[in-house]
Amino acid sequence: MADCIFCKIASGETKARIICEDDDTVAFLDLNPQAPTHVLIIPRRHIDRLSDASEGDAALLGKLQLTAARIARDLSVEKAFRLVTNNGKGAGQSVDHLHYHLLAGRKMLWPPG
Ligand code: 5GP
Ligand code: ZN
Fold this sequence. Notes:
The protein is an alpha+beta fold. It has a single domain (5-104), classed as 2-Layer Sandwich (HIT family, subunit A). Helices cover 21% and strands 22% of the residues. It has 2 helices and 5 strands; from the N terminus they run αβββαββ. It has helices spanning 5-11, 58-74; strands at 18-21, 25-29, 37-43, 81-84, 100-104. The chain has a 5-stranded antiparallel β-sheet with strand order 1-2-3-5-4, covered by helices on one side. A hairpin with a 7-residue loop joins β2 and β3. The protein is globular and about 35 Å long. Bound molecules: guanosine-5'-monophosphate and zinc ion. Residues 5, 16, 28-32, 40, 86, 92-95 line the site of guanosine-5'-monophosphate (5GP).
């Protein structure tokens, strides 16, 4: 999608510190990390947010979560990490391309606020 920063990262047009990628997903370091480990995991295909995903996206959504779990293992934070998606402006979503935040390396607060 034109003018979507995460589509541009997925296509390589905009640089990011890529952690891993495959045909369906890309994971890269957040530009403004909120924890010692802060990775963003996105589908290559543009979906605005989780509430726009459909039944046909079930495998893709599963893959995004399994990718996050694998990255957590690879980064040795699998015992304590948080995986979160902000769905909509009111929930803190600032980039309208579905993404999961993988956060780890500090004490996580609850409720998240
Ligand atoms: P949201 O607020 O939508 O849940 O999360 C968007 C995240 O994308 C933020 O944590 C922000 O720091 C990150 N971000 C925004 N623009 C860029 C960028 O150009 N490159 C990278 N690596 N991260 C970005
Ligand atoms: Zn996009």
